[in-house]
Amino acid sequence: MPKAKGKGRRQKYSYNLNRKRLYRSARRRAAPRIACSHIRHAWDPTKSVAQNLAEMGLAEDPNKAVPIPKKKLLGMELESNGWEQGKKIVRKPYVVNEMEYEASLPEKKSNTLSRDLIDYVRYMIQNHGENYKEMARDEKNYYQDTPKQIKRKINVYKNFYPDEYKDFIASLKQEKMDVQ
C-alpha cells in the first residue's frame, strides 16, 4: 500500500507552542537518579541536592570544593583561608567512610580469554611446540594469523593463565617422557 502523500516531509516549527512550561513540568517531576547505594540510603527527599550532599560531607560543585589558589602579580601566593571558611557540619559521615572503604578494596581481575582462543593456543603448542612458522601453516589456523600474531596470542595466554600454562607444559613433557 502506498504511503500517504506529504507524510515524509519535515514538520513546520510551531511558534505558538509554549515549550518553557512543558520542560519545566517535566523537570519538576524527575527525581535525581543516584547510582551509589550509600548515598541513596542516606538521601532525604525533603531537602535539596545541595543540602543532602553537604550533610554527607560531599561536594556539590568540585570547583568550589577545591579552589585553585590565585597568585599575585609579584608571584607570591595568597593565604589559603578558604579552607577554614568553607567548613560545614557533616551530619552523615558514615556515607563518606563507606565509600572510602569500598574504594580501598582491591579490584577483581575480570580479564578472561575466550574458550576458542585457549583451545587454539593449546592445540598449536601441543602440535608444534615453539615453531611459530609451522603454526602459521597449520590447517587449523583459520584466520591466517602470521607467526608474530600467533606468538602474541600465546604470550597473552601465558600472562592470563600462568599456572594453567605451567601445568599444560609439564603434562606435555610427561607425555614425551612416556612415549620415549
From TrEMBL:
It comes from the Eukaryota. Keywords: Nucleus. One of its GO terms (biological process) is ribosomal large subunit biogenesis. One of its GO terms (cellular component) is nucleolus. It is found in: Nucleus, Nucleolus. The keyword Nucleus applies. InterPro entries: Ribosome_biogenesis_Nop16. The keyword Nucleus applies. It holds the Pfam family Nop16. Belongs to the NOP16 family. This is Nucleolar protein 16.
